[in-house]
Amino acid sequence: MARGTSGEQTGTMAQPLAGVRVVDLTRILSGPFCSMLLGDLGADVIKVEGREGDEVRRQGAIIEGMSWYFASFNRNKRSITLDLRSDEGKAVLHRLVAGADVLVENFRPGVLDKLGLGTAERERLYPRLVVASVNGYGSTGPYAERPAFDFITQAMSGFMAVNGTPETGPLRCGPPITDLVAGLYAAFGVLAALRVRDRDGRGQAVESSLMMGMVSMLAYLSASQLATGTPPPVTGNDHPIASPYGLFQAADGGVAVAPSTQAVLRRFLSEIGLEHLLAEPRFATNADRVATRSELNALIDEAMRGETQETWIARLNAAGVPCGRVQTLAEMVEDPQVAAQEMVLDIPHPGHGTVRMTGFPVKLSGTPCRVERPAPDLGAHTDDVLAEAGYAPEEIAALRESGVV
Amino acid sequence: MARGTSGEQTGTMAQPLAGVRVVDLTRILSGPFCSMLLGDLGADVIKVEGREGDEVRRQGAIIEGMSWYFASFNRNKRSITLDLRSDEGKAVLHRLVAGADVLVENFRPGVLDKLGLGTAERERLYPRLVVASVNGYGSTGPYAERPAFDFITQAMSGFMAVNGTPETGPLRCGPPITDLVAGLYAAFGVLAALRVRDRDGRGQAVESSLMMGMVSMLAYLSASQLATGTPPPVTGNDHPIASPYGLFQAADGGVAVAPSTQAVLRRFLSEIGLEHLLAEPRFATNADRVATRSELNALIDEAMRGETQETWIARLNAAGVPCGRVQTLAEMVEDPQVAAQEMVLDIPHPGHGTVRMTGFPVKLSGTPCRVERPAPDLGAHTDDVLAEAGYAPEEIAALRESGVV
């Protein structure tokens, strides 16, 4: 297991977002994923929480008092508690924002205005501030005010209509993919906006949404819809227009095979002893093979069932045929490639044991992502952050006394 | 339909990547998505293609000689043909790279070395260059040399194991999600590396992979696996630990409802006339309702079947209950919110009619994404790009004569 760094060099250059301060008003998942990505790049992320803290602190598997789900999405953040409903709390927030480069929020549209951080006020008070918003549907348009949730935006975006089988009908996928995609887009937008600010001295608003992020990820399916006016069918594990393609049966389990071209297909069939099939008219072209898919699949299953998954995967990969197995999450986290890529990190959380979490999907050779600090206990950095914002010890005590922090 | 801009202001500030030149060696999907995202932010993207061009030019629905799939992933790019197997072609490539800020590629690991662009050579010749690689499994580790494909990395990442129903078993999702996520991560990494380069004058290598990108998107499912050692089950449209949650039946179709908290659940049940159920012991707590899910779902279906989707969606959203309908892609592209968010663009392609494509998922208020140019015909900018790189007309003619370009 890796120690929380990634890449060969460490520390010779400062991280990309070293010196960038982020005030983070987000909770649950989409916004926290955005601010986590910024923290992984070295930003100083100040997570602002209400007295009860982010709900995710109480969700998922909790070990030694720490939700591992929370821990994995809130590394590299500091936590301050702040009552944003009180005037004093709003004043503290403004002082934090005055010292920040980026504000991230995933409230419903309109909440920032109530905090005195509407567009006009921001442009007047904090012209260099980059404000990133992650929301359900975008802040303009007929659905702007709707509450959102991953499942609902999977449904609305068209993603569910192209996930599933003819038997299941439209299907939600397990991971909350719309939250994560929107959070990643927002972090991407923040980097773009910081570049403009560094160059021109002007901040701006960045926005991504669960629904539109997913709309942008439908690839050839949306292209086909727009070109033909006809919705693509749900096809399960079959490819709509390629054959053979799918899960085939080795002695001890399935092997996923995707022969991407006729040349790759020839190598595949050659490896499993079926190259002669390509000489038969009913299997000659892809169109022929789509028509005879079930017959061909049965022949392939028969040819492959004499050897194990491992044998086939080694042989086919060596022959340049994209293939692999369907891994459970248990298998994935033990996968040697996942280890080599340092995608499972063991992060010590003082007082909460060691938390295992997924690593960094972006590798930067010179300035790698790092876990500089584990996810914070609720309010653990309230005093530090207030002091950095210029509050005197007695002022901090007074804020604490009155329940503002 | 929008005209290819997004946001209120246009053109007052230069785009984030104005003046950034990208040499783009990518093809198919993951890499082209990365370079498209950079182009949407204003980079000058030079797509380098072999004589046959990117395979996607011949894929998907083709109208007036243009693949709409290709068009939608290659906007904001210029195209130059170049034979990278010839020494002269490699020399041209090096001249392009010498004038570039970013190189993007999605070859298998090792191909860059053959082009004279291995790590050591790059650091010596082009120390300010940012090199982004998108590959299947990462460039180190036991699977580094394996050919990859979306379906295979959906399988290997664990995604398929948490997609599907108990009946279907592990299921691939329709969209090539691992390609798109990896491309987005790579573009995010490029922006981070450009920031370092602008500050420190040093380029670096950026890498993302189809498998590891997806591994990073399993959220509470991977957190649960790591915390408990037990793989989560596939649950279809049911939420593993929340009830009620799912698709319910209105008079004319399904309504997806996700009551995220007990308070929201109360509002939901109140709207459909079932608030009294919460007083009954068998429906009192979430745990009770998970145990009685099928009974509760039947009661909800019965309560909702008297009104239409549209009525319920309006009423429930107004009550703050996240809900929506499962939209086909046909419905999605006609959705008024999609229109308001300018997520379907009509882009004129001279000689190929008007191509409709998905818009920009990231909104930047001051420097919005734009379509400055439609996807290029193969090699359309060869002469321009070579001239900009300092080639004289007779040199360009000679390169053309010898089949290098």
From TrEMBL, chains A, B:
Gene3D superfamilies according to UniProt: Crotonobetainyl-coa:carnitine coa-transferase, domain 1, formyl-coa transferase, domain 3
Lineage: superkingdom: Bacteria
Transferase as UniProt keyword: yes
Pfam families documented for this protein: CoA_transf_3
Keyword Transmembrane attributed: no
GO MF annotation list: CoA-transferase activity
Keywords, ordered alphabetically: Transferase
SUPFAM superfamilies: CoA-transferase family III (CaiB/BaiF)
Protein name as catalogued: CoA transferase
Organism: Salinarimonas ramus
Taxonomic classification: Bacteria, Pseudomonadati, Pseudomonadota, Alphaproteobacteria, Hyphomicrobiales
